[in-house]
Amino acid sequence: MSMARCLNKAIRVALWAVSGTSLCLMTACSSSQSAAFMALRNVARPNAAIDSSPLNPKLTYLRVTVNDKPLLMVLGYVDRSSSEWPEQVWYSASGEVLRLRAGRLAGLVGTPVEWRSVRWPAGLPAWGAEPVSPAPYKRLLDEMPGYRLGVEDTLRLQAIAPPGSTAWRGSASADVRWYQEVPSSGSTSARYAVRQTASGAVPVYGEQCLAADFCLTWQSWPPLPKTTP
Question: What is the mean pLDDT of residues 28-48?
Answer without folding.
Answer: 50
